[in-house]
Amino acid sequence: MSDVAESRTSLDASARTVTVPLGTRAYDVLVGPRLLSDAGWLTATRLGAAKCAVVTDENVARHHLGALETALKQEGLHAGSIILKPGEATKCFSELATLCERLLELGIERGDLVVAFGGGVIGDLAGFAAAILRRGVRFVQIPTTLLAQVDSSVGGKTGIDTPQGKNLIGAFHQPGLVIADTDTLKTLPEREMRAGYAEVAKYGLLGDAPFFAWLEASWKAVFAFEAEALAKAIETSVKAKAGIVGRDETEQGERALLNLGHTFGHAFEAWCGYSQRLLHGEAIAIGMCLAFRFSEALGECAPGTAERVVAHFAAVGLPTRIGDIPAEKPDVAGLMRLMGQDKKVRHGKLTFILAHAIGEAFIAHDVAPERVSEFLDSEIAGA
Ligand SMILES: NC(=O)c1ccc[n+]([C@@H]2O[C@H](COP(=O)([O-])OP(=O)(O)OC[C@H]3O[C@@H](n4cnc5c(N)ncnc54)[C@H](O)[C@@H]3O)[C@@H](O)[C@H]2O)c1
């Protein structure tokens, strides 16, 4: 065996592999350091030789595109790279249209691959483009934010935002492979790292109390990029998501638990115009604190539970209250309107993810809007 082949074999073995169990559409999520430089080989060995069109944003391109292009070129896979503006605003119809046309210009055909290389914005947009291009082409996720590595790159939800709300246009389209190189996180701004951490904590809060307790003890090691801690945090999160997606791919039931904190959170993001004032993960952090406080207010969980959640997020440096949002105070009617646009609305009643305890989230259908507005009133008054 050549030296290169040998080092690749050991590298592949050192990566943690989580399989998303979807039958004939099952795919691997590879988690570990130094994966990017072998991305071409990892892709070719799993998905066969195919032309790859890389979709990325300017920030990711600046730090990491050279390494990915080299890796793809080594295997003769690189068809071209499309570099988009960073930020949530890119997840829109006009960018989608341009992206699809540029992918066609690169000659991407049914057997080829779109490579989504970036955070959740690029993953959602490029994944959706792959879902509709030529009625569906395959795609690979190479997530470069913590949020994308633990959440958005896995599970096949793709889509864009509209002025009416987030992610209201989209498709389920599973990737063929996810390559989460933990080294790429080292160039991520700390604020983005913290925002992604909110989604890591979400898995503990929704279904894994020991994991949440471990995070309370180990979060500093995760932020210090200690290899074992970082890999454990990401792998545990991906395993949790893969399990849920495997049981409920299209969110007929259990998958909704992943929306813990999202009904409130999406409304806050919309309130801030999807701007840098409030990142997705920050909105979700506040949303999760509210979901626990709301659970307490409804008598669903023991007093003091929300305080533990708030204490952990505050220690990490995440916002926990409506008052932490750097915008004018929202009004209840405005927030209720924005929550009404959320996909979690059925016959005028809201579906919320509430909790009986840390690690015991449940889906509450038919939450009366009056209870929600009463609760939000008190939250805003105390903000
Ligand atoms: N599909 C899903 O299941 C799912 C789940 C959760 C969130 N999302 C979506 O994900 C999006 C948020 O994703 P995000 O938080 O990754 O945001 P993002 O994609 O906007 O990335 C955050 C910022 O970090 C920069 N960046 C990315 N990787 C970098 C790196 N390695 N080094 C330096 N800078 C880097 C980006 O350019 C951007 O400025 C939202 O649109 C949300 O709706 C989707």
Bound molecules: nicotinamide-adenine-dinucleotide
Fraction in beta strands: 15-25%
Question: Stretches where pLDDT falls below 50 for ≥5 residues?
Answer: none
Radius of gyration: 20 Å
- Give the averaged pLDDT, no decimals: 93
Biggest β-sheet: strands ordered side by side in the sheet: 1-2-9-6-5-3-4
Assign a percent range to the helix content.
40-55%
Tally of contiguous helical segments = 14
Q: Sketch the topology as an H/E string, one letter per element.
A: HEEHEHEHEHEHEEEHHHHHHHEEEH
Distance between the termini: 64 Å
How many β-strand runs? 12
Structural class from helices and strands? Answer: alpha/beta
Name the shape in a single word.
globular
Main sheet record: 7 strands, mixed
Commentary on this structure:
There is one protein chain. With 383 residues, this protein is of the alpha/beta class. Helices cover 49% and strands 19% of the residues. The longest helix has 21 residues, at 227-247. The protein starts with a helix and ends with a helix. Bound molecules: nicotinamide-adenine-dinucleotide. Nicotinamide-adenine-dinucleotide (NAD) binds at residues 57, 59-60, 63, 86-88, 91, 118-122, 124, 144-145, 147-148, 151-152, 155, 157, 166-167, 184, 187-188, 192, 195, 280-281.
